[in-house]
Structures are given as structure tokens and as C-alpha cells.
Amino acid sequence: SSPGKLTAELGKMQSELDWRRAEGQAEWRPAQQYAVNVTLDSASAHPSLEVSQDDRSVSSRWAALFPAVPGDPQRFTEQMCVLSHQCFRTGLHYWEVDMCQRSRWFLGACLEAVARAGPARLSPAAGYWVMGLWNGCEYFVLEPHRRALSLHVLPQRVGIFMDCEAGKLAFFNVSDGSHIFTFTDTFSGPLCAYFRPRAPDGSTRPDPLTICPLPLRGTPVPEEEDGDTWAQP
């Protein structure tokens, strides 16, 4: 390709990225108005997980308790999770999670009944709507098979927006305000927020997943500030 053609192609790609970001922020900004206080239910936590005293962070003790396990990235995810205290039956709800430097995790929501009933594959058909990161480089959703996500800006913080009546669960990259993915389904019961700091993660005390403090429902969000600045605790 000639230099001029290459420059034009790069310009077109950048324009598309700018458009996608603007579209994503058009969805993300209104979603923030529905921020709710989400905390972790330590009673629901798997024994390999450690929940903080304020019920806002969870880390994995797997590496300290067990040897590293190679193979299927979903093989050891079933039930090694913690749920939120809150169950959502109706309405609109939004929360954010800081992943720090974790290279493996799952985030999303699940039906309260199936999560507490026993092991199940993490798919919408089983009552789980989640996205994840594997080995620090592969973002994906399970719907029910793993579908890779192409993210131009890697998220340090993920926003999750739930619309119970519409059957939607949307994920946003708070680092740039872009939309990541939306599940559309029928929720057949109360939903809990789902957290899974997947193991092993390369150290005995890896960074936790932390629920971020946000201006709660009804608090105006400053339009002039970008996502990174506004979202700081």
C-alpha cells in the first residue's frame, strides 16, 4: 500500500474508534445515574476466597492453598465465587469493579437460586451472565461458548449496568467510557452481582477485586470530567 493509502486507512480506523467511543459514552453516562450500593455476602464466598471486612473486596487464596492447575480456563471456576448481599428483582442498577492488576477474573450477574444451588457452567442458559479475563490478555464473554472481545483500551475498572425488566446486562470500560458487551435475555428470578477472582494468579497475595464507591442513584454526574477522573474513590 502507498503511504497515502495507509494514512487514509489509519484515519478511517481512528474515526471509527472515536465514533464507537462516543456511542459507548452515550450509553454509559446515563447508566451511572442508577448507581447502587453493592456489597459482598461473605457467607456465599467459596473457602478459597477472602472477603475484606468492609465487604467490598475479594481476593483468592488459591495459590497459597493449592498448586497451579493448567488446562481449561473454566475448569475450576464453578462456585469459586462470591455473590452480592443485594438481590435485584426489578429496576435499573449500576456498579463498578476495580480489577487492579489481576490477570484472571470473572464479573457479572447470576440468578440467586442457581448460584446457591450448586455447581453449574457459567453460561446464560445456566443463569450466569459474565465476562472474564484470562492470563491478562484475553477478554471474553460466555454465551454459552467463549466469545473473544476486542478491546482497544484495556479496562482497569469495569462498569456493570442491569435492566431487570428489559433483560439486559451491559459491561462498560470505565477507563474510556466505551461499551464492551451487552447480554439480552429473560431473567427468571432475582439476580445477584457475581465476582470471581480466578486462580491461580501468579502470587500468594494477588490484587483483589474491589467494588468502587460511587455517587448513588440520583446524584448528578459531572459531564465535564472523564471516566478516569470522575471514578476515582
UniProtKB/TrEMBL annotation:
One Pfam family hit: SPRY
Residues covered by region (Disordered): 214-233
InterPro entries: B30.2/SPRY, B30.2/SPRY_sf, Butyrophylin_SPRY, ConA-like_dom_sf, PRY, SPRY_dom, TRIM/RBCC
Annotated Acidic residues bias: 222-233
Superkingdom, taxonomy of origin: Eukaryota
Domain B30.2/SPRY: 18-216
Full protein name: Butyrophilin-like protein 9
Organism: Myotis lucifugus
